[in-house]
Amino acid sequence: MFNNKNKSKEAGAVKKLYHCLDISQTSNELNVDTDTGLSTSEAEHRLTIYGPNQMRGGGRPSVLKILFRQVANLMTVILLAAVIVAFVTKDWIEAGVVIGVILLNSTIGFLQEFKAEKTMDALRKMSSPTSRVLRNGHQIVVPTIDLVPGDILYLESGDVVGADCRLFDIFNYEADEALLTGETLPVVKESDVLNDPEIPLGDRINLSFASTTVTKGRSKAIVYATGMSTEVGKIAKKLLENDKPKKTPLQKSMDRMAWILLGIAIVCVLIVFGANKFNIKTEVLLYAIGLAIATIPEGLVAVVTLTMSLGVRSLAKKRALVRRLVALESLGSITNICSDKTGTLTQSKMVLVRAWLPIEGFFRVSGLGFEPVGEVTKKRKVEINNSTGEPRVNFAESDKAEDNIRSYNNDVERRSLPSSGSSYAEETVTVHKDNISASFQKLVEAAALCNMSEVKKDERTSEWFGIGDPTEVALQVFASKLSMGKPVLITSKRASEGVSSGQWQLVCEYPFDSGIKRMSVVVANKTTGEKLVFLKGATERVVPCCSKRQDGQEVLTIDSDSLQSYLDPRIEEMGRDGLRVLSIAYRHLTPEEEDADMNKADREHVETNMTFLGLVGIYDPPRPESLPSVMECYRAGIQVTMLTGDHPETAAAIAKQVGILQDQDDLNHGNDGPSDHAVSIGPLVMTAREFDRMTDEEIDALPELPHVIARCSPETKVKMIQALHRRDGIVAMTGDGVNDSPSLKFADVGIAMGQSGSDVAKQASEIILTDDNFATIVRAIREGRRVFSNIQRFCSLLIAGNVGELVCLVLGLAFRDTLGETVFPLSPVAILVNNLLTGTPPAMALGAEKAWPTIMDEPPRSPTSGLFSWEVLSDITFYGFSIGLLSIADFWVVINGFGDGNMAQHCNKDYVEECDLVFRARGAVFATLTLGILLHAYNSRRIRGPMWNIRMLKRVHENKVLFFGFLSGTVLCLLCMYVPGLNTKVLKMKGVGWEWGVVLVTLLIFLILSELYKFGKRKILKPLSIATEEQERLQRIWTETTTLGSINDSNTAVKK
């Protein structure tokens, strides 16, 4: 803890509005020399004052707190009460067994939560581990956690900013602040003083904030806030203050069940005392305790925790880290997934997929990712003379009939119809060094040379990676696919490889400037001596620099307005396909410029009188698994909504490719004819501005909420969640930025990105995706459904078994010996042993049950249904009473049906010859109860489906844990019955002989009753889940898409 003096000093350092101070004032305020930085001793002193530069309050809780949470539940309290009673009556065996159960429950829960929190600690340490600072006049690297106010930071492209800081000595510095402000584009920084003290955070361009990323340039900075005093820390502090955990429906159901069972246990104890006329002897008290313990499924908490832990472990292997076990419960109820686009539905790897040149038309580029492997292809028309049958190739045509140009399948330009006597056929041509045109080669060279990025191969992993701006990396990969990457063009190896052009040398560079949105380089050809300027950038900034257009072998003079009008249809078409369009141009230097020093030339003059070369289209391709995953959501009745910061056209195009938008949706194709993914804005695609302007009443009046919201802000995400909640939706929301934290908290299930997500977003979430992949969300939902259905199964099994025991033991109080004292159908220890054999082991086996193939065919489970639906309660009652009545019937049949009805005296205490019949009857009851409940574990695998037919009997070993659990339970049952001393002295029963016939007939009757009961449910009850109209619509989309895919696959197979 800090003393008050230190606290006030810390507050003072942070409350200053440093964007309103110049560098001199800032350095004076923080008492640091910008030329030498802090001394080591001063940095250590300040570290003791301000504390470590980390998020506090949201870390791992203490070990004692985690342990306390494991025992602070009603079920454990009841078990502790049973332990106290057992100790008072000196029943050491029962006390020891119950204590063992409590320890098992607590240990499993403690280890799981402790492990999850340790994993979160590891995730927190992944962000910005080191920083470069100036101390004692030397630049050194220190752990980011050791940064203090006054440190001089060195920042450059690729760095994660370790603390809030005031920038100076800026050179072309840009930062990605999307995690904090939601701004999708990098922010250009300046060091000038800002005079407005209330200027918004995103406009404080002379500051850089913790957890943001430097995307370009370099700068120095003075740290003024660390840890919880940073802007990120302030948001984290608010989230921690409002982070009040609420009980989930599962927890509420288990609490209600615990109270009900507590009441039943008390009533049962009173019944036992009443049946013995409140003559409470030691054996009567022990029987009452045994009956009370039989009422409580003591293994339930452990099995629920273990089942969820297994689900967490399974999801961890599938790259989803569950921070809170209860999130698994909510996953099965999800009706809507609101997902980001970049990196979640897409690969977060910019790829150049298309190029366009005047006359030559569109080129398609294959291959995804950073590996320079792929082909550049173009469709060409071959004119067939119908009279001779000989082909005539038509590579390019005159541009005079531009009005007749149409894009066909986004690749090829279609011209006017062929002349009489001829027909056209299309074929795909692969571009390579032998057939590449001069203009296309120049475009490729410009893409490689007007480029500061690098593409390299990791020698250890053999994976390719890019260094630099993602757009430039995409251009470099494209050039490398044609063996014209920058390393090839500027090295002497080029001539030996037989490439037609000569070697190139970089003369000077005019870097990309976000103000003018273009970049240019001057290069020299060592072979010919000519010097050229290559220019690339946004079309609206490149076109004004051009006065000519490259048309095949010709260069045509054209004014900028005409060029822009000429390019607009192609740009719009590529934009509708979700592509980011760049323009490329070039020009030869004049003789005067070739002799001049171009590094001193005026940039505006250099970038004039350019010749337009062509367009390239770049986009972030969808992950291959995104479309099948979205279709899987539709199959499960889950609507997917894309909330992205991208432009509407890009968002709509990607949404259509991944299946979020369908062909029948109100999205109209462009006027230039159909393309693969061309869509325009419709009612299902909105911008955040349009959606935010609508009132809640207007949103609720919409027949369908938009499936895509572009240019999305954090407030828009929260508004969408609220709209979905008003429609009774259960929402999963993805997010990665600090600004996403409110929506992650507001959603029913917050899902943070593990790779690109901020620490605050991770702490606000319930689940973290370690691969940032949408398909992982779908796998998590499937696992959540499996876990909840398994919990429902084994809860039904455990409580039905308890009901069976209660029915048997309470009705057994009616049996009396010759002294009029009750004869117990089972001894107290036998009751506990039966609990151990039939409780936790088969329940754990059901918890490990694999998901049935139809689990994603059902619509989401209603969150209000809870754990104990009417059908589950009906199952518990029917199976419990069936097992209990059949068991006590066996007791009567053995004693009165086949025996002489003599129950002797004091058979509850010790074995004597006169009690042989009673002890054998107890053996029959023990076998019937134990084996009946173990068989019912198989019943519980299917709620309504038949389990005891030939087809399912062949699958009896499918759940190996259950199969071996049944076998081991049977063996232990036999050991309890036949081991001398254990049976008669401890368990007060005896092994049976001919009574096995009674037991087996009883079990057969139980299986027949079970199948008849399930048959009646299938005929009378409604389907397990009733889909809403919206869910039925989504399932129809999945069916139609799957059917269409099957037809296409069949047609392809037939063609092959």
UniProtKB/TrEMBL annotation:
A GO BP entry: metal ion transport
Transmembrane segments: 66-86, 92-111, 257-278, 284-310, 876-899, 919-940, 961-981, 993-1013
Membrane topology: Multi-pass membrane protein
Lineage: superkingdom: Eukaryota
One Gene Ontology MF term: ATP hydrolysis activity
UniProt-annotated location(s): Membrane
Matching InterPro entries: ATPase_P-typ_cation-transptr_C, ATPase_P-typ_cation-transptr_N, ATPase_P-typ_cyto_dom_N, ATPase_P-typ_P_site, ATPase_P-typ_TM_dom_sf, ATPase_P-typ_transduc_dom_A_sf, ATPase_P-type_domA, HAD-like_sf
Keywords (A to Z) from UniProt: ATP-binding, Membrane, Nucleotide-binding, Translocase, Transmembrane, Transmembrane helix
Occurrences of domain Cation-transporting P-type ATPase N-terminal (ranges): 17-91
PROSITE patterns registered for this protein in UniProt: ATPASE_E1_E2 (PS00154)
GO cellular component terms listed in the entry, alphabetical order: membrane
Short name of one Pfam family: Cation_ATPase
PANTHER family found in the cross-reference section: CALCIUM-TRANSPORTING ATPASE
Protein name (Swiss-Prot/TrEMBL): Cation-transporting P-type ATPase N-terminal domain-containing protein
Organism the protein comes from: Coemansia spiralis
